[in-house]
Design goal:
Distance between the termini: 5 Å
Strand order of the largest sheet: 21-22-1-23
GO cellular component, one term: cytoplasm
Subcellular location: Cytoplasm
Shape: elongated
EC number: 2.5.1.7
Bound molecules: uridine-diphosphate-N-acetylglucosamine, phosphoenolpyruvate
Number of strands: 23
Organism: Paenibacillus glacialis
CATH topology of the largest domain: UDP-n-acetylglucosamine1-carboxyvinyl-transferase, Chain
Radius of gyration: 21 Å
Protein name: UDP-N-acetylglucosamine 1-carboxyvinyltransferase
């Protein structure tokens, strides 16, 4: 097991280039199995979740090769094989194999997904969508069995605008007979990215990025080449780290429009921000104002930046209230930050954060973004060494995190426990 060691107190300076988005990559890779020929993905991040997804496809007989940030997937010899255990248990997004296999083979057997379990994460809306398309879905001994004689387009109203359910239904509906309409669809940029790939493969999808998505099913999809959008959550994490260390960092290869909720909150706190075409410069200040943050679905403040933001708010003067309206109890980072001297109490779906100086401590990440929060907290500590365990969670979602922070002047390194 590895841990990160951090000697903080150094303002971050320089430029960091953001890789492709995890939450796009791990939907685009399964989407590729809907094609009959090779799909090439560019700007792929180097993450453990991506490596695990490549394994899943290889286990099914696809040919997958990777060179740097490019992955070539030839799904022509893929087979329908049950996947009750193994790699599918290692990540959350293995649920996309349900929609992709259903679209391609009209059947699938997949173990319930793993990944970050900061609270119960139901998949009832995914199942409701598959059933509406004509599939029979059963849950037996921890695996989901899906089968359809034929997939037929349907009108599906999502009770919650779920990212995963929206994408999963798009995957299955792309090769169903007739039209599908998803109402109350999620609007996250990664959904547009998946629709763009599917349309380049020959699918007919309109409205991705709005609450109504229309899909005209087609009988066959072909290979194509696609470049993945930048990771807005990694970008937001570096913006927060720059502000927290009172540094001056240019975050490059971002889509500033995707960062609006983050940028607005930093400006409200008193952080200096310059927005350029494909980059954002964050200049930290000595004093920050306490603010209230509400994590919501896109274009609201992202829940995935809620934990890193908690660490920054410990550096503000006064009391901030951070509420998560997507995941009501995503606060496993709070007791760990408390070990570092943070004054935070959780009430219902809110964390109430009082500004305070943090101290070095031995802490443990229990999920990906909790890990990012602890690294940021460690970077602000002026004396001593902070030890962050649970690095395997951080490696799920941060491409080259140690090298990137070192390049920005941080003293951070890996050690084996
Ligand atoms: C692989 C991936 O892209 N993960 C992201 C995706 O997760 P994921 O797709 O799992 O998250 P959802 O958008 O589905 O979840 C949003 C909310 O809907 C609820 N819900 C969801 C599905 C369902 O069938 N029933 C239900 O009740 C969830 O419990 C949660 O409260 O979006 C989340 C919210 O932006 C992010 O935190 C994750 O990083
Ligand atoms: C929760 C996250 O990811 P996943 O849904 O893949 O667990 C995340 O990226 O913060």
């Amino acid at each position: 097991m590895e841990k990160l060691m951090i000697t903080g107190g150094r303002p971050l300076h320089g430029t960091v280039s953001i890789s492709g988005a995890k939450n796009s990559a791990i939907a685009l890779i399964p989407a590729a199995i809907l094609a009959e020929s090779e799909v090439i993905l560019d700007n792929l991040p180097i993450l453990s979740d991506v490596a695990v997804y490549a394994e899943i496809l290889e286990d099914l007989g696809a040919s997958v090769s990777r060179e740097g940030s490019q992955m070539k997937i030839d799904p022509s010899s893929i087979k329908s094989i049950p996947m009750p255990n193994g790699s599918v248990k290692k990540l959350r997004a293995s649920y996309y194999m349900m929609g992709a296999m259903l679209g391609r083979f009209k059947e699938a057997m997949i173990g319930l997904p793993g990944g970050c379990n900061f609270e119960p994460r139901p998949i009832d809306q995914h199942i409701k969508g598959f059933e509406a398309l004509g599939a029979t879905v059963t849950n037996e001994h921890g695996s989901i069995y899906l089968h359809a004689k034929e997939l037929r387009g349907a009108k599906i109203y999502l009770d919650v605008s779920s990212v995963g359910a929206t994408i999963n239904i798009m995957l299955a509906a792309a090769r169903a007979k007739g039209s599908t309409i998803i109402e109350n669809a999620a609007k996250e940029p990664e959904i547009i990215d998946v629709a763009t790939l599917l349309n380049s493969m020959g699918a007919v999808i309109k409205g991705a990025g709005t609450e109504t998505i229309r899909i005209e099913g087609v009988s066959e999809l072909h290979g194509c080449r696609h470049s993945i959008i930048p990771d807005r959550i990694q970008a937001g994490t570096y913006m927060i780290a720059a502000a927290a260390t009172r540094g001056d960092v240019l975050i490059d290869n971002v889509i500033p429009k995707h960062m609006e909720a983050m940028t607005a909150k930093l400006l409200e706190m008193g952080v200096h921000i310059e927005e350029l075409d494909e980059s954002i410069r964050v200049v930290g200040q000595r004093n920050y104002e306490a603010v209230d943050v509400k994590a919501l679905v896109y274009p609201g403040f992202p829940t995935d930046l809620q934990s890193p933001m908690t660490s920054l708010l410990t550096q503000a003067e006064g009391v901030s209230v951070l509420s998560d309206f997507v995941y009501s109890s995503r606060f496993k980072h709070v007791p760990e930050l408390a070990r570092m001297g943070a004054k935070i109490r959780v009430e219902g779906r809110s964390a109430i954060i009082e500004g305070s100086k943090l101290n070095a401590a031995k802490v443990k990440a229990t999920d990906l973004r909790a890990g990012a929060a602890l690294v940021i907290a460690g970077l602000t500590v002026e004396e001593g060494v902070t030890e962050v365990g649970g690095v395997e969670f951080i490696d799920r979602g941060y491409d080259n995190i140690v090298e990137n922070f070192r390049h920005l002047g941080a003293e951070i390194w890996r050690e084996t426990e």
